[in-house]
Automatic annotation (TrEMBL):
<dbReference type="InterPro" id="IPR039557">
    <property type="entry name" value="AHAS_ACT"/>
</dbReference>
<dbReference type="InterPro" id="IPR027271">
    <property type="entry name" value="Acetolactate_synth/TF_NikR_C"/>
</dbReference>
<dbReference type="InterPro" id="IPR054480">
    <property type="entry name" value="AHAS_small-like_ACT"/>
</dbReference>
<comment type="subunit">
    <text>Dimer of large and small chains.</text>
</comment>
<comment type="function">
    <text>Catalyzes the conversion of 2 pyruvate molecules into acetolactate in the first common step of the biosynthetic pathway of the branched-amino acids such as leucine, isoleucine, and valine.</text>
</comment>
<feature type="domain" description="ACT">
    <location>
        <begin position="5"/>
        <end position="79"/>
    </location>
</feature>
<dbReference type="GO" id="GO:0003984">
    <property type="term" value="F:acetolactate synthase activity"/>
</dbReference>
<dbReference type="InterPro" id="IPR045865">
    <property type="entry name" value="ACT-like_dom_sf"/>
</dbReference>
<comment type="pathway">
    <text>Amino-acid biosynthesis; L-isoleucine biosynthesis; L-isoleucine from 2-oxobutanoate: step 1/4.</text>
</comment>
<dbReference type="GO" id="GO:0005829">
    <property type="term" value="C:cytosol"/>
</dbReference>
<dbReference type="InterPro" id="IPR004789">
    <property type="entry name" value="Acetalactate_synth_ssu"/>
</dbReference>
<dbReference type="Pfam" id="PF10369">
    <property type="entry name" value="ALS_ss_C"/>
</dbReference>
<dbReference type="InterPro" id="IPR019455">
    <property type="entry name" value="Acetolactate_synth_ssu_C"/>
</dbReference>
<keyword id="KW-0028">Amino-acid biosynthesis</keyword>
<dbReference type="GO" id="GO:1990610">
    <property type="term" value="F:acetolactate synthase regulator activity"/>
</dbReference>
<dbReference type="GO" id="GO:0009099">
    <property type="term" value="P:L-valine biosynthetic process"/>
</dbReference>
<dbReference type="GO" id="GO:0009097">
    <property type="term" value="P:isoleucine biosynthetic process"/>
</dbReference>
Length: 166
């Protein structure tokens, strides 16, 4: 089993997201993340899908996506250099004044952003890679046990520019 990324260009029409996601649920494939947004062309949306699967299942998924009428293009990012980010919010509650100072230090070191706070609670915005967000969660589990909640958004990815080709 391996972590995989697919980027789809799809027609920007009502029901396309439901049809593509039902393709996965109908076959009992589990998605790790699915993010959709408009592109520079308002008639086209880009879906970024993350999943964990074996080679055979992944090839089957790509073939099914390519057969879908609404799918314009399927790009497999599995073995391609990509830039990937995931949005995550962390809310930490019941902090002492000293813990708020410690939190401010963590925010500075990890290039995070405090987007809301009061005397004992803060909300942190993390736009990092999935692995880095996982590491931050482990840090917050140790530093603020049982006093934080997390909301994670889907990841987005784009192919990296290969500067060695020109």
């Amino acid at each position: 089993m391996m972590k995989r990324w697919i980027s789809l260009l799809v027609e920007n029409e009502i029901g396309v997201l439901a049809r593509v996601s039902s393709l996965f649920s109908g076959k009992s494939y589990n998605l790790d993340s699915l993010t959709v947004g408009a592109t520079e062309d308002n008639s086209i949306s880009r879906m970024t899908i993350s999943l964990t699967s074996d080679d055979q299942t992944f090839e089957q998924i790509k073939k099914q996506l390519n057969r879908s009428v609404e799918v314009i293009k399927v790009v497999d990012f599995t073995d391609v250099a990509i830039h990937m980010k995931e949005l995550m919010f962390i809310k930490i509650s019941d902090c002492t004044q000293q813990e708020m100072i410690q939190l401010t230090h963590i925010i500075s070191v990890f290039a995070l952003k405090m987007i809301d706070y009061d005397a004992d609670t803060a909300i942190i915005e993390c736009v990092q890679t999935e692995d880095r967000n996982n590491n931050l969660i482990r840090l917050f589990e140790k530093t603020f046990p049982n006093r934080f909640s997390i909301v994670r958004g889907g990841g987005v990815a784009i192919e990296a520019i290969n500067l060695s080709n020109g």
